[in-house]
Amino acid sequence: MYDKWQxxxxxxxxxxxxxxxxxxxRGIPVIVEGAVPDWRPESQWSLDYLRRTVGHRMARPDHxxxxxxxxxxxxxxxxxxxxxxxxxxxxxxxxxxxNVDVHRDLPELAPDLTPRLAYVRPNWLSCxxxxxxxxxxxxxxxxxxxGSAFPKLxxxxxxxxxxxxxxxxxxxxxxxxxxETAALVQAFGDPEKFDMDADPATLERLNMVTAMLxxxxxxxxxxxxxxxxxxxxxxxxxxxxxxxxxxWPQHLRAVTKHTEGLKKPLKVAAYxxxxxxxxxxxxxxxxxxxxxxx
Length: 294
Known about the structure:
Blueprint: E1 6-7, E2 9-12, H1 16-22, E3 30-33, H2 41-44, H3 47-54, E4 58-59, E5 74-75, H4 76-85, E6 96-101, H5 102-105, E7 139-144, E8 161-168, E9 171-176, H6 181-188, H7 200-204, E10 208-213, E11 217-221, E12 226-230, E13 235-242, H8 248-256, H9 263-283
Parallel strand pairs: 1-10, 2-3
Antiparallel strand pairs: 3-11, 4-5, 6-7, 7-13, 8-11, 8-13, 9-10, 9-12
Helix pairs in contact: 3-4, 8-9
């Protein structure tokens, strides 16, 4: 594993308002230590606990945003057994259970993850006026064993920020700023073809950042940042997508990018109006425009 890149900045937990005012607005990844002190999984969750609690639920190994990696629905217990034993499942030598919506698909785990991470609010994805393009503030679940990894370096869809909280084990994250896209294209032809086993001289030309997430760490991934994760041991983590005033322009561009004809200016105008409304809504501390799941 190439280890000469800059380490992601670490900081102690701060209040949500202070985070967005002083840190989130910078658009730079940061690891917040101890952001979820009231959550139970750090001391409670184990594969045996997950088997007992959600083993009967159905999920897809390597299921996520990349359809070519979506597998067949299987009992969660079967996927966890394969992860623990290191045996292949659905043709994957290193199965990775990922991007599973906790509230929808594993609701028994939701009480363990409350109160919700303070930094994911306000989350405009939960606005009742918006189409639900992506999970609106709900928690996604990830578990993988030694040798598993996210399939490719990627940028989260729809211009969202992401918060990843590590609950068990360790996970290596490698990231690149949007400004590094051209360098990634020059090195690999396509950023998604990024390869950690590439020639060290190639990797050295890239200005990337990295970190080893440990239990209790929460990684903030700003909108537009390329990222990928690698596991050398059993790893359990959860993630939440977020849109608010800090990345509303990126979200607006993403959701209107493929709109054509007269529909595009109308859609842009509607989103601009909603953005103004939500800024005012948040400024007065209201919450009536948001869906609630707690």
